[in-house]
Amino acid sequence: MSTIRFDAIRETFNRKPAEVESKGKRSELFGSNVFNELVMRESLSKEAFKSVMEAIELGSRIDRKLADEIAAAMKNWALSKGATHYTHWFQPLTGSTAEKHDAFFEPVTNAYAVEKFGGDQLVQQEPDASSFPHGGIRNTFEARGYTAWDPTSPAFVYGTTLCIPTVFVSYTGEALDNKVPLLRALQAVDNAATDVAKYFDKNVTKVNATLGWEQEYFLVDKALAGTRPDLVLAGRTLLGHSPAKGQQLDDHYFGSIPDRVLNYMRDLEQECMLLGIPVKTRHNEVAPNQFELAPIFEEANLAVDHNSLLMDVMDKIADKHNFKILFHEKPFAGINGSGKHNNWSLSTNTGVNLLSPGSTPMKNLQFLTFFINTIKAVHDYEELIRASIASATNDHRLGANEAPPAIISVFIGSQLTKVLDELEDVSKGKLSPQEKTDLKLNVVGKIPEILLDNTDRNRTSPFAFTGNKFELRAVGSKSNCAKPMTVLNSIVARQLIDFKKEVDALIAKKELKKDEAIFNVLREYIKASKKIRFEGDGYSEEWEKEAAKRGLSNNKTTPTALKASISDKAVALYESLGVMNPREIHARHEIELEEYVMKVQIEGRVLGDIARNHVIPTAIRYQNTLIENVRGLKEVFGKDFEKHAKEQMDLITAISGHIAEINSMVNKMTDERRSANKIDSAQEKADAYCEKVLPYFEKIRYHCDKLELMVDDELWTLTKYRELLFTR
Ligand code: ADP
Ligand code: MG
Questions:
Q1: Among the four 54, 77, 145, 172, which has the fewest Cβ within 10 Å?
Q2: How confident is the model over 105-152, as pLDDT tens digits?
Q3: Would the pLDDT of 570 be above 70?
């Protein structure tokens, strides 16, 4: 009997929900481990407080002396929260977060020590960063990387460590992380959107991009997960036969949350409250053992930090509750995968959501302006959006018949489609008084009403308008939201800058009124961006054909999709906005290709190992039992034995067949991997892994899964799908 597997199952059956100590009312817990505005107001001098607030709002520099004061206040506050260490917390291009802890403690003599933390330590650090990916940016002569304080994201205490959110840049100031380009893109969209918003309200001085993500994940019992090398090393199952019952009945979705999981969620949510992550909703997802958690939206940089932090916290707390959390986009074949919807909008310092229709025709023209410009931006840069969500793991989800397709399109619902259709007919140049009135009353004026009862939802669209925000639904559950947010905010910034130029030109040249000029430009955008709009079933085959006809990209794999991120168009976009220079762009591309290769390489090795060292030996053990049995039958029945041993002999033959196939395929896969490893060019190597290595996974799996069905359940060493998915 396979003892590890059955021990794990027994252990899982005997588990009780872990205790969760209630720490108090959520409203009181909220943000209590965050060095936020309130704490700063109380602990800083007026001058220091003002300088932090200006750094947050205007990006101004903080004077060195004041930095010392802020550091001292931060240290005292952190010590009062039980912190013993501090760390610069950053997001290297590995996609996760990194930290190196230093103690506050510093001996002065051997009899006397102090807790020390000054402006120098707060503002800048030089982590030993040589092992973080840099894509060639840090050559040996400039090998240093620096982390620098990002005051727009508040410091927090997690466990016993004061964490200071920072950017990570090279000696030459080039981005080595996900945050720097994001901050630059957010600055660009702030500038561009503020300029356009001023058409409608002179009081607008700042526009924040807002992000509300929805995090999907799976929970598997820790003991069960521990029996699967693929889950441990690759975060997904590389083989396993589908259970008799999957998600066909849809009985998990919005069903009651199991107790063990509920306690996990309560524990997690309490920690989120302390850290100031405003989590709000939780529920079961479509697949068994799949769940979702979503916060209230925040300013995009903060929201990205919070999501990165959350994933780390989720992982740690899961362990406490004897779960392993799976963020992989497709942990189980044949079962829904996980995504991370990115809800996005723009919000002014005057408190207006620019993608929310208002109460007057002018407010609605403002809405339409931002709405149509966003659609136009997505139309012009759809391939770049696709590139921003590309990863080896998300490839298993996009276009796999359940998640948004690899084709980017925009869904807006039938009501807004009608509005855009009508706007398309606006006259060129000056508008007649009659037309103006008609637009005001019947087209623009009606928008809030129609949106109110707009329950139009299209779950198959990768980029859907949902009443007062767009929802980018194709983001992978594992990815750092900084990437898609950098692209989305950059392309909208670019678009709004161009829009303003065109409108201003029309006002100057043709002496059109402002609203006439806006209508004129929007009309052309509606026409020009039509092909990106799609209201039908995004998962259907017809859409794939239709999209091809329309000339939309359909980049199904990461190595192909990533090409768009170094296109001339992308380089021009990022350079014109100051988001990234060509060196940064190419470095990132290289890193992403390398990451792709590494992921597939690891999976290939793990699969080879499981197939050879778990599946085949188990199959042989069972086959030997069968052979013994046949031998016995022969002894008992003599030459008549075949009548009684037919099934067994067929099984013996079938098992041999599958073993032979697995062996030969693992050999071929290994050969392909070896030759791919010899390729120098990152692109060609990734292509080789994608086209030559990866296809063997399915073939090997097929034979392994067949063996799983044949072999005596008691002998099978790998925990089965039904056990992973239905034991909790
Ligand atoms: P749904 O029907 O899709 O669940 P919700 O209104 O519950 O819609 O919102 C889903 C997510 O969208 C939440 O994370 C929420 O915070 C976020 N969201 C709502 N409004 C905005 C906005 N203006 N900007 C960014 N995200 C938003
Ligand atoms: Mg949603």
A1: 172
A2: 888 888 888 888 888 888 888 876 667 777 777 654 456 788 889 999
A3: yes
Residue 278 Cβ < 6 Å to ligand 1: no
Q: How many distinct structural domains can be found in the chain?
A: 3
The rounded distance, in Å, linking the Cα atoms of 330 and 339 is 9
Output the CA 347–ligand 1 centroid distance in Å: 13
> Which of residues 177, 211, 230 is at a domain's end?
177
Q: Ligand 1 center to residue 448 CA distance, Å?
A: 18
Q: Which among 272, 281, 307, 343 is the best mutation to test ligand 1's pocket, defined by most ligand atoms within 8 Å of the CB?
A: 343
17 in any annotated domain: no
pLDDT at 112: 83
Query: Integer distance in angstroms from the first to the last C-alpha of the chain?
Result: 23
Q: Is residue 344 lining ligand 1, measured as CB closer than 6 Å?
A: yes
Q: Comparing C-alpha atoms, which of 373, 412, 575 is closest to residue 492?
A: 373
Expressed in angstroms and rounded, the spacing between residue 214 Cα and the centre of ligand 2 is 7
Q: Are residues 551 and 576 in the same domain?
A: yes
Is there an atom of ligand 1 within 6 Å of 458 CB? Answer: no
Q: Is the CB of 343 under 6 A from ligand 1?
A: yes
Interface predicted TM-score of the whole assembly (ipTM), two decimals: 0.96
For residue 650, give the CATH number of its domain.
1.20.120.1560
Token digits of residue 689 = 């892994």
Which ranges in 329-474 belong to alpha helices (H)? 361-380, 382-388, 414-423, 433-438, 447-452
Q: How far is the CA of 724 from the centre of ligand 1 (A)?
A: 32
Q: Which domain holds residue 321?
A: 187-580
Q: Above 90 in pLDDT, residue 350?
A: yes
Instruction: Give the Cα separation of 556 and 156 in Å (integer).
Output: 40
Report the predicted TM-score, pTM, of the whole model to 2 decimal places. 0.95
